[in-house]
Amino acid sequence: MPLYTSYPKDEYTLLKKPIQQAIQRVLDSGIYVLGKEVASFEQEFAHYSGLKYAIGVGNGTDALFISLKALGVGPGDEVITTPMTAAYTAFAVIYAGAAPVFVDVHPDTYEIDETQLERAITKRTKAIIPVHLFGQPCNIVAIMKIAKRHKLKVIEDCCQAHGAQIGKRRVGTFGDVACYSFYPTKNLGGIGDGGAVLTNNKALAAKIRLLHNGHQTSKYYHTAVGHNTRLDELQAAILRVKLQQLDQFIAKRQAVAAAYDRWITNPKIIKPVVTKGVRHVFHLYVIQTAQRDTLQQRLAKAGIVTQVHYPWPLHKLPAFDFLKKAYRLPHSERMSQRALSLPMYPGLTQANVRQICRIVNQ
User: Fold this and answer.
1) What is the DSSP letter of 68?
2) Where are the alpha helices (DSSP H) in the chain?
3) pLDDT in tens, 216-266
4) Which CATH architecture group holds 246-361?
5) b/e for 265-284, b at 16 or more Cβ within 10 A?
6) 144 to 50, 170, 280: CA distances (angstroms)
7) DSSP helix, strand, coil percent of the chain (3-state; round to 5)
8) 278 in helix, strand or coil?
9) Which DSSP state fits 310?
């Protein structure tokens, strides 16, 4: 059987009975949107994440977009973020009518370089979207100090970092809002799309809840233009099952990462650097090598599927040409040419990891 970079079926196999029971419970209820499963999951995930309020939405992109709208970001504004992330982070900014501004990353951790933020701030800057990339927290503490100094909003993109921590504090608890994706390959993933916005701000949570469901104060009574982006009952029920096992699955991911760290001995391979004092939850295990393409092909011949996160930094994609802004972001550009994501999911065995490492070490 091939080994994949991510393998959502692995978790379904491990949790097959309770997941099937959850699916049947939803089907039997006859309520498939905005029911008890979503309400319960919102409470449970908020509690797990160390925040008071959670609002389920259609996907992680919608979570970011709705958050930007609720915080008043719109046309003429700028939002600073990283070029090393999925394009949807920046798309959400554009959907809100604002312009993304890209800041380079640290060359060792791949996280947004907080020391470069202030030189990117202008009179138009309204917010920062730091991304906790690959499962590792960025330096959100320093970012919050900068945001406070310049009176900027902070939207934490936690789409790859469910359960990650700085000390004993979860990511997502530092900024104004936290945004999550429940795409199937995430550390907490459903069997389709899903997302959530979390916050400690009661008024902001109420605003987001109105926005995500057509701005209805009562059924069919729309007090403003809203949006239609909801987490459905089926996804919520499955996520409730998986949430109970999330820390156990994170521990398995960390064990896989430790095995890679131990058994990859090729001096031409740069292994992930974990920041001291954080809980890295290893959504991905990303190495760097100048021979990336050759190594990827060699692994593929052995039935080992890898991916590149990301083959182009966002400022190099034609989708963002309309911004008409020239960037020189050397760390992001170099990483896009050297990064390779090795298989990473809870069901990987030590034998699987040894097999992968033998090829990586050749």
Assistant:
1) H
2) 8-14, 16-29, 36-49, 60-70, 88-95, 117-120, 140-150, 202-212, 233-263, 292-301, 330-338, 350-361
3) 999 999 999 999 999 999 999 999 999 999 999 999 999 999 999 999 999
4) Alpha-Beta Complex (3.90)
5) ebeebbbbebeeebbbbbbb
6) 18, 15, 20
7) 45, 15, 40
8) strand
9) -
Q: What is the distance between the alpha carbons of residues 143 and 318, in angstroms, rounded to a whole number?
A: 29
Q: How many CB atoms lie within 10 A of CB 347?
A: 16
Cβ atoms within 10 A of the Cβ of 67, count?
32
Contacts of 239 (CB under 8 A, 6+ apart): 41, 45, 182, 188, 190, 194
How far, in Å, CA of 113 to CA of 146, rounded?
A: 12
What is the CA angle 351-353-356, rounded to 5? 110
Handedness of CA 71, 36, 228, 6 (dihedral sign): positive
How many degrees, rounded to 5, is the angle at CA 230 between CA 59 and CA 18? 80
Give the pLDDT score at 223: 96
CATH 2.40.50.140, applies to 8-240 = no
Alpha-carbon span 30 to 21, nearest angstrom: 15
Tell me the pTM: 0.97
Sequence ranges of the domains in the chain:
8-240, 246-361
SS3 for 308?
coil
Radius of gyration of the chain (CA): 20
Maximal C-alpha separation, the chain: 65
322: helix, strand or coil = helix
Residue-wise pLDDT tens digits, 29-79: 999 999 999 999 999 999 999 999 999 999 999 999 999 999 999 999 999
List, in sequence order, every residue forming a beta bridge with 180; answer none if it has no partner: 196
In 3D space, the residue among 115, 144, 149 whose CA is nearest the CA of residue 128 turns out to be 144
